[in-house]
Request: fold
Amino acid sequence: MALLAGIGLRQPSPPDEPRFVLAARAMVESGQWLLPHRGSELYAEKPPVFMWMQAASHQLLGNWTLAFLLPSLLAALATLWLSGDLARRLWGRRVGMWAVLALASCLQFGLMAKRAQIDMVLVGLTTLAMWGLLRHLLEAPNRRALWIAGFAAGLGTVTKGVGFLPLLVLLPWALWRWRMRAVDDGLRGRGPALWWLLPAFLLGTAVWLAPLGIALLQHADPALQQYARELLFKQTGTRYANAWHHVKPSWYYLQVMATLWLPGSLLLPALLPAWWRRLKRLDGRYWLLLGWALLVLLFFTASPGKREVYIFPMLPLLCVAAAPLLPGLLRRAGTRWLLLAYVSVLAIAALWISVHLLGGSPWAHAQLARRAMPDDLLTPLGSWLLGFGLVLAGLVIWLRQRRAGVLVVLSACLLWNLYGWGLMPALDPYSSASALMQRVGQRIGPDAQLALLAWREQNLLQADRPVTEFGFKRPWDQQWRQAGPWLQHAPHARWLLVLDQAMSPCVDRAQVVDIGSSNRNRWQLVPGSAWRADCDAHLARDAASDEEQD
Reply:
C-alpha cells in the first residue's frame, strides 16, 4: 500500500515531528508520561495524548524510526475505513468504495498520513465521531454509536483542542428536522438520546484531564500550575480568539482547498450545483455532511490564526458527500479531460524538474544551496523524479481520458511511493539535522561533552550522546549565563553548539568552528577554551526560540 511506502526509512523532520518524538522519547526514558518535556522544560503547547501514542508505539516496536509514524498511519487507515463504511451505510456498497478512492487520491490526505503530526490522529477521531453521530441521526437510533461518537470527540479535544467540532453537526440536524417537521419520515424521537453524548464526551476528556487534575490537587508545584494555565487557556482560547502567529487573510482557506485538495478541488464547480439541488430537496444526508463542513470552515475562518491543517477534518466528510455523484461526473467528457490534464501536468512537472536536476542546471544548484543541501543529491532526486514522470506519462498515453478516474488513483499511488521510497530518504539527513549532528560528533570526538544553546528540537533528538541544554524558550542571554560557566569548568573537554545569530560577544571568534547549516539555520561549535570568563558583555539581541509551529 502506498501509505506504507518508506516507513522506517527516515528520521523526524521539522517543524512538528521532532518536538513530538522528543517528548515521547523522554516519556519512555524517564517513565513519567503525564507531563511531556522538551529537554529540561515542560512542553505546554499541546496535550500529551499524541505523544503517548508514539511512546506506546515505541514500546511495541522498539524502534523510533518505525514508531513515530505508526499513529498517523493507523489513523489514516481508520479514516479511510470509516469514510467508506459511512458512505456505504448512507448510499450503498459501491458508493463506499468511491468515497475511499476519492479521499486516498487527495494530496492533503496522503501528505498527512505520511507525517507524524497530531492532525492525522485528530482527523481519525473526528471522522469516528461523525461516523457515530450520523449513524444515530440518519440510519437508526443507536446508543452505542452515540457513546463512541461522544468518547471520540472528547478524546479528540484532549488531543488537539478542536476535537469537539463533530458536535456542531447537531445544528444542521436541528435545522433540517425543523424543515422536515411536517413529514413523518420515521426519524422522530432521536433527540432525547443525544444526552448520552455528554457523559461519553466527559469520559473521553478524562483520559488526560483526570490524571492532570489529580496531579494538580496533590502537588502545589508552581511549574505544574503554570503548565496547566498555559495549555488550558493560552493554547486554546487565546490561541483561537487572539492568535499571535500564522495570521492569514479571511480567504486563506480557499487557497488551501484549491491546492492541497487536488485533484478533488477540480470537481468542486460541478459538485456545488449538484449538492445545492439535493439540499433543496431536503436530503438529510447532505444537510448534515455539508452543513457540518460549512460550520467548520466558518469556525476556523473567524480566527485570525490559520494553518492549512486546520480544515483537514472537513476533507473525509466532503469525500463522503461527493462519492455518490462521482460516477455521474466521470461520465462527462469535460470532467475526464480535466483530470487527465491534472495528471499530465504532474508528469510534465516531474520530467522538467528531473531534467534540471540530472543536467545540473543553475536553477537546480540554487534550489539545493538555498536549503543547505549538497550537490550529491542531484542524481538520486533527478533519477527518482525521472522514473516517476516517465511511468506517469506512460499511464497518461495508455489510459487517456476514457479512464481518467483510474489514472488519478494510480497517480496518487505512484506519488506516495515516490515520496516514501525516494524523495524523503534522500533528503532525510539534511531535513532531520542528522547529517549536521553527525558532523558535530565527528568534530568533537567520542569523549567530549556537548551542550546546546538556541537549539532546535531536531538537534537534541539527533545528538549521538547525552547533551546539556539551558532551556528552550529562555532568552539567549539567560542561556549564556549558564553556558559560560559550564564551558569554563572543563574547557578542554566541553563544546557548545550555538545558532550563529545567538553567538555571544564573550566568545573568541578565532576558535569557533563553523559546522555548517541545517533547516535554513547556520550552526557554530564553541570549544570551552574560547569562552572569556572576564567578559560581562550582553547579547545585542535578546531573543528566544521560534514560536510553536503547530
In short: Confidence is low (pLDDT under 50) at residues 542-549. The first strand starts at residue 37 and ends at 38. Residues 404-431 form the longest helix (28 residues). The radius of gyration is 26 Å.
